[in-house]
Amino acid sequence: MKNRNVAENFGIEFFDVDLSKMTDQELVEVREAQNNHGVVFFRDQNLDCDQHIQFAKRFGNIVVNRFFENVDGYEEIAMVRKEPHHGTVVGENWHTDHSYDQAPALGSILYAREVPSVGGDTLFVNTYLAYEALSDGLKSTLQNLKAVHGSEHVFSKAAVEGFEPDEDRFHNFDQAIQESIHPVVIVHPNSGRKSLYVNPLFTLGFEGWTRDESAPLLNYLCEHSLKPEFRLRYRWHNDSIAFWDNRATWHQAQNDYPTERRVMHRITLKGCELEGVSGG
């Protein structure tokens, strides 16, 4: 399949594959590219909602998002939209999806249905690269640490009202009670590579540490991960798709199109409990 690197260090974009007719060999190539790069992209797709779902199911089972609105008639597909009157953008803070779940999401498949004339890019961080660039001493310190991840401060009613008054894009506030513990350094279940598994939005602190004690190291790891050499920017066109691995990347939606609309359809795949470098 024809492809190109989106950034120097990671990210592959495919040009000549029709995801509604993808062969088994193409599936293997896509899976391998995502395992190695953390995120892959596809241009010029023409999928209806059923085809979007069928493509996703070739990679795993779908988890229904409990906080986002769904596409009418398709509970498997979350609506990620920004209307001209919205002052905020869904996903505008750096994060990885569903890290607050006991079995965090494997990946997310975001399909651009309507994009603004300018802006609305998505940024990605590769957490394989972020981990690999740490010193041996810090790697040793982190290998037995675990971190607490939570959703209440993001998806509870109080949090959403603070995010934007009269918010109409989120639901099920009472379900924002997840709090899970994961290794700070995980071994990716498919690639076998080590990845730094904390993120600025959902990671609350380290297990057994206070929030104040956790903050300096957690902030350092997040700032380190945002270095330019670990990042890429993806410019959307209508009918583009990004498929990222939540165990190997962060992402952030840009809020730079104040008078325009942006509509994306997202399917999230179920994952498994994560193991650290020492098997815990």
Structure description:
The chain has 280 residues and is an alpha+beta fold. It is built from seven helices and 17 strands. Strands 1, 2, 3, 4, 5, 6, 7, 15 and 17 form a nine-stranded mixed β-sheet that branches. β5 and β6 form a beta hairpin.
Question: What key phrases describe this protein's structure?
Answer:
three-stranded antiparallel β-sheet, 280 residues, globular, nine-stranded mixed β-sheet, 17 strands, alpha+beta, Double-stranded beta-helix
Shape: globular
Q: What's the name of the CATH homologous superfamily?
A: Clavaminate synthase-like
Q: Return the CATH architecture.
A: 4-Layer Sandwich
- CATH class reads Alpha Beta
Q: How helix-rich are the residues, as a percent range?
A: 10-25%
Discrete helix count: 7
How many angstroms separate the termini? 38 Å
Strand content: 25-35%
* CATH fold description: Double-stranded beta-helix
Order of helices and strands: EEHEHEEEEEHHEHHEEEEHEEEE
Write down how many β-strands occur, each being a DSSP E stretch of 2 or more residues: 17
CA gyration radius, whole angstroms: 18 Å
Q: Main beta sheet, described?
A: 9 strands, mixed
In round numbers, the mean pLDDT is 92
Structural class, please? alpha+beta
How many domains comprise the coordinates? 1
Contiguous uncertain segments of 5+ residues: none
